[in-house]
TrEMBL record:
Annotated InterPro entries: cNMP-bd_dom, cNMP-bd_dom_sf, RmlC-like_jellyroll
Protein name: Crp/Fnr family transcriptional regulator
Domain Cyclic nucleotide-binding residues, every copy: 22-75
Top-level taxon of origin: Bacteria
Length: 194
C-alpha cells in the first residue's frame, strides 16, 4: 500500500499544530531487522507501520504453507488492514525482508486520536479509500494480465524486489510456482528489447 503522501497529507489535512503534536507523540520510530515478524499468523494486528526504509512482505499462512498477498516498500504502510480494523486474529503475517526503519502507531493510539478530533476519523477514511482503490486496481490487473505482465508491474511498482524477496515468495504473489517464474524470467531475458 503506497502512502508516500501520508506524512505530508496529514500535515495539510490536520492543519493544526496541536493535532499534529498529538499524532507525533503517538508515533514510535523503530529499527526492524531483516527476518523479524512484526505480525505472526493467528495474532491480532495491533500496529500500522509507515515504512521509511526497508521492505516487508505480507502473507497468509498456517505455519506450513504461506501465500504472499502484499508487499510494503518505503513510503508504504505495512499492516494487515482487515485484521487491524476488526481486531480479531486472522491468518495474516508480516515479515521484514530487508532491514527497516518505520514509524509505528498502535490501534489504541489511533482510536484515541479519532476520539480527539473528527479530522482523524476523516484521515483514516482517506487511508482506507486509498487502500480499497489499490486493491481494486491490483484485482483488475491480476484478472486481465498474464504472468509476464504481472511480474513487470510488480518490479516497476516495487523497485529492487527481485534482489530482496525470494523467487518462491514472488511466485506465490503472482499465483504461479517458483519453477514457472524461473522459466518466465529466462524467457524475458531472451526477448530482444525494443
Amino acid at each position: 500500500m503506497n502512502f508516500n503522501y501520508f506524512i505530508d497529507h496529514y500535515k495539510q489535512y490536520l492543519n493544526c499544530p496541536i493535532l499534529e503534536l498529538e499524532l507525533l507523540s503517538r508515533l514510535k520510530e523503530l529499527n526492524i531487522v531483516k527476518g523479524t515478524y512484526v505480525l505472526n499468523p493467528g495474532d491480532i494486528c495491533k500496529y500500522v507501520y509507515y515504512v521509511k526504509s526497508g521492505f516487508f512482505r505480507v502473507f497468509k499462512g498456517d505455519g506450513f504453507d504461506e501465500e504472499t498477498i502484499d508487499f510494503a516498500a518505503p513510503g508504504h504502510l505495512a499492516t494487515a488492514i482487515p485484521n487491524f480494523l476488526i481486531q480479531q486474529s486472522q491468518r495474516e503475517g508480516i515479515v521484514c525482508e530487508e532491514n527497516a526503519r518505520v514509524l509505528r502507531i498502535s490501534h489504541s493510539d489511533w482510536l484515541a486520536l479519532e476520539n480527539l478530533s473528527p479530522k482523524f476519523i476523516n484521515l483514516g477514511k482517506l487511508i482506507l479509500q486509498a487502500y480499497l482503490q489499490q486493491v481494486n486496481t491490483q484485482k483488475n490487473l491480476y484478472r486481465t494480465s498474464n504472468a509476464s505482465q504481472k511480474y513487470q508491474y510488480l518490479t516497476q511498482h516495487y523497485k529492487g524486489i527481485a534482489r530482496i524477496v525470494s523467487q518462491k515468495n514472488i511466485a506465490s504473489y503472482l499465483g504461479i510456482t517458483a519453477p514457472t517464474l524461473s522459466n518466465l524470467l529466462k524467457t524475458m531475458l531472451k526477448k530482444p528489447k525494443g
